[in-house]
Amino acid sequence: MTTFMSRKCNLFFSTVAVRWKISSTMFLIQFALVYAICVIGVDSQKPEDGPYRGKYIGKFNSYHHQASGDVYAVDEYTFLITGFNYDGNGVDTFFWSGASNRPGPQGFIVPDEYGKTNILERYFNKDFTLRLPDNKRITEVKWLAIYDLNSQNNFADVYIPEDFEPPVPQNAGSLSRNSHGVSSETIDILDSKTIRLPEFSYDGKGKEVHFWVGVGPSPSSKGMKIPDDMGYLDPIRAYDRETITLELPGDMTIFDIDWFSVYDVQTKEDFGSILISDDLNVPPSLVKITPHIQSLPNCRQLHKDFRVSWEVFGPQITLQLAGNVKEDEYMAFGISGSDSQSQMQGADVVVSYIEGHQGYAVDYNITSLAPCVQVLGQNKGVCRDDLVGGQDSFQLHTFNREDGINTITFRRMLISPDNGDKPFLLDRPMYMIWAMGRLDSNNEPTYHDIYPKRDVAMSFNTSEPVNDCFSFTRSEVNLKDVWEKAQIFDRTVRSFSATLGPAGGKRGYQGITGHVSNGLAWYINGLLVPELWLRRGLTYSFKVRGGNNPHSPEFYHPLVITDEPRGGFDRLSDAKQSEIRVLAGVEFTRRGRPKPTAAGPRCLAEYPPNQDRRLDDNFATFKKFNRTLRWSCEKGDPAILEITPNSSWPDVVYYNSFTHANMGWKIHIVDSYSSSARSGTSAAFADVRLITGIAAVVVVLLRYGLAAGR
User: 3-state DSSP: the chain helix, strand, coil percent, rounded to 5?
Assistant: First the structure.
């Protein structure tokens, strides 16, 4: 416990040193007293080096074959072995445990670090965990040994102390109810870095409220904010009896803090808090900590997985973006499109990523919240500067990918010669924007997954370096189940309603299709991108309401059917277009230019005003998600797209948007509606789902009729 006691003592003393305004002699006396108390407290603990590993059991007593190491209890069922050595020369040697008084033939094999019961091979200074088999608990055994069954020799052993209590999650009490509806059930300390708040509530009406931790007898402004349940460091949102899990940032552990609070930094008010006991016997965290030292003097942590560093020198600013991202993901950062708030529209940003052995920092201009498309001969949306008459003003300096962290450094003039670029101002704070998301097949940024909902103000001209950054952490992410993959397999259905709606996060369009998303998707008969089953020789009609205003980069989506899965036919080069077979929805002019034929008035499912799109994955099913949406439909008749699949059509084709990629999905073309027609595919679609889809369409049409009659 040395590391944690020392850190807490240092934090305590630094606070005392600031507050004690006394003579230097008295200060030295008080310093000695505080330091002595800390040393006594530290030395009374079992010395440890490095991070918290669990409750210490002891060292292996070594008898033969150089077997040695330290043993900890991670939880009720698991040992952690550190610095383990064994020469591997035993004949029939295993990890061995039992309930007898000393190691002997009465015991059982403990599977190795891979869960195997193989004969042990050579180990050299290795760290690993061993889990007792058959849900046996550490308290049910008396020893752990390195034991040879052939010779019945004990090479090394460690004994479990009597009345030993292995680490387990601990209860920390409920939040004190001070104000703003803050409450919770009993809070759980799951491990050394993880706090779970069951049934947590907060009305969201504070000024600048954060999850806040610190050292001392009670919550105060001398604390530190920790990321919320989604990793953001912005002021927290409203919660209504939600069970959330918080992770302490960087290398901070529960042993480094005395209290946890829901705290308003602006008003310095504690809305609800708990005190953290000093002697918590909790499991160590399995979170991997990746220290990351920035090379520039200033650093701002914007999310647990994203930071920006900078330095101003002369007429230039050097920026460094570092993020915990996958290989196909980007990091974006830039100047807001508004001088009074953080706003994407009109923003000037850099999009950075690494592909293979090459790094990129590309200058983008955001004229609309949509992928870059041509509107009446001009590029609109999230477009590279060189496509809108500007120039790429960023000069790439260095790039690196290590331990899953992308680090990209680049420069730009404070006042760019490109008139389309916004200047970096040094005389006042600036509103910035940032985002992280996936790249599409052309390495263009798609709709971001991680982005702030609050304003981000930054001052780039600082008299003293600023740095609130901490180490990156990574844990195993439990992927949530994808929403049900809807199918329409009904020989009586000859007409389909095609409207627009939100893509629904990683459980929605991305999970169903495996493609990246631009934020919108087709809703066919009220279902999110269902697979359709159509029979050759029959005629079907699509009533298309995807927007018919070609001046709109965001909401102009004629429906097309092709043999290519991604769509966005109009964005492709002539060479790419020539490789795609267009089956319906496009006709070609005399000059050979494609022209859409199925553009109807827009009918769009939208989020309610206060709903956060970042929480889409919290909905267990599409049905629950869909119930929260509100429909908005323009006047006018839908465009009709009629198709009659024939023998020349492939067995699988795709419906999509003419202008934007990744909005639709599959159409299966079959010769008959037999059960074998969809063998090998999911048959999750049921009659109740069809009824739900038809009911949704009826609601849409009724609302559409009401809107048209106004």
Answer: 15, 35, 50
Cβ–Cβ < 8 Å for 199, 243: yes
- Burial string for 511-548 (b: 16+ CB within 10 Å, else e) reads bbbebbbbbbbbbbbbbbbbbbbbbeeeebebbbbbbb
| Helices and strands (H, E) in the chain, number of each type | 6, 47
Q: Which residues contact 301 (CB under 8 A, 6 or more apart)?
A: 233, 249, 307, 468, 469, 470
**Contacts for 160 with CB less than 8 Å, ≥ 6 apart:** 57, 138, 139, 141, 142, 143, 144
The token duo for 645 is 């699949």
Average pLDDT over the chain, rounded to whole? 89
Question: 3-state DSSP call for residue 286?
Answer: coil
CA distance 264 to 72: 40
Total residue count of the chain as it appears in this document: 710
The stretch 518-545 carries a mean pLDDT of 97
R_g (Cα) of the chain, nearest Å: 31
Location of structure tokens 């600013």: 317
Can you say whether the dihedral through the CA atoms of 674, 676, 680, 686 is positive or negative?
A: positive
Half-sphere exposure of 399 (CA within 13 A, CB side): 16
- Distance in angstroms (rounded) separating the CA atoms of residues 403 and 290: 7
Residues forming a β-bridge with 299: 309, 467
- Pair type for strands 531-535 and 487-488: parallel
C-beta atoms surrounding 287 within 10 Å: 18
- The DSSP letter of residue 510 is H
Q: What is the pLDDT of residues 365-392, one digit of tens each?
A: 999 999 999 887 789 999 999 999 999 9
| Residues linked to residue 317 through DSSP beta bridges, in sequence order | 312, 412
Residue that is written with structure tokens 């069809």 in the block = 690
The token pair that represents 238 in the structure block: 């409203």
- The reported pTM is 0.85
Q: Which residues of 450-462 are buried (b: 16+ CB within 10 A; e: fewer)?
A: bbbeebbebebee
Q: What is d(CA 27, CA 19) in angstroms, rounded to the nearest whole number?
A: 11
Q: Give the Cα separation of 698 and 710 in Å (integer).
A: 18
Three-class secondary structure of residue 624 per DSSP? helix
Q: How far apart are CA 699 and CA 632, in angstroms?
A: 12
> Rounded to a whole number, what is the distance in angstroms from the first to the last CA of the chain?
71
Residue 452's φ and ψ, nearest 5 degrees, are -85, 150
